[in-house]
Amino acid sequence: MSGAPPRIGTNNEATFDPEAVRAFEHGGWQQAASEYDATFARATTPFVGALLVVTGVANGMRVLDLCCGTGVATAAAAAKGTDPTGLDFSAAMLARAKAANPMIRFDEGDAEALPYSSESFDAGISNFGIHHIPRPGRALAEIYRVLRPGGGVAFTTWAVPAENVAWRLLFDAIRAHGDPDAAKAPPPGGNLGTCEAGLQLLRRAGFRNLRAEMTRREWLLPDAAALVEALRRGTVRTAALIAAQPAEALPAITVAIDRGMAGYRSGDGFSVPIVAILASGTKLPK
Questions:
Q1: Which of 158, 180, 251, 278 ranks highest by number of CB atoms within 10 Å?
Q2: pLDDT greater than 70 at residue 117
Q3: Taking residues 87-104, what's their average pLDDT?
Q4: Phi, psi (5° rounding) for residue 252?
Q5: What residue ranges in 34-191 does DSSP mark as E strands?
Q6: The model's pTM
Q7: Of 15-19, 38-42, 73-77, 194-198, which range is least confident?
Q8: In Å, what is the CA distance from 194 to each residue of 39, 156, 161, 164, 277?
């Protein structure tokens, strides 16, 4: 899947309610499914290869792609000769995954209660999905359960906005011309925008041989309007923030982003730096 760094508002009065988070995320991904591959997948796909490398995905392995969305990472694992399974809670996202990859198994299910037997997978991956789960610690514990001893897990989450030019441009523009508290979304299940946060999540789930690193890529965009549209149509939490802005503020927000992107021009478009946390670990033999 995908997503964005923590919201920029200052309204901290909402109480964490996992079911409210689940409903918010589910509704958002059901809506974003039809636009995702053409928009925000262009930002998330460049990180898939790193997930496969760090988990040692290879021919014949059984691989679980958690929060698989439209199946981009699942298909990449299949191309390595693996036997992959993608799991997601959004039927709309899974419909896109199945249509594009009819030979791959995709299951609708809950990441916090996986419908698989213990020790049934050789590796687990999740490309920008963990931070959309209400209780990511439970999901990592479930991955630990279904991995065989010696199996590896790896996931990506977006680094904090200070490290991500795309979100920094948007959030700065909203602070200057819009309302950073406009979206009334429930608070997320965890702030996973740092290496230490990823390591802590893995450690608590029982994984060892832990690693977390900043992984850098570039998001190729034609202009500022394309950046705003990709975030508006291909994400959930950031999309809610954009949608909540006063209509009269959006032109000024886009102009401010356009000015900020000037330093990242590349040919006829822009190469905007984006940064993910790539965290991984191993289920050690008993």
A1: 158
A2: yes
A3: 98
A4: -65, -35
A5: 62-66, 83-88, 105-108, 121-127, 147-158
A6: 0.93
A7: 15-19
A8: 25, 11, 11, 12, 7
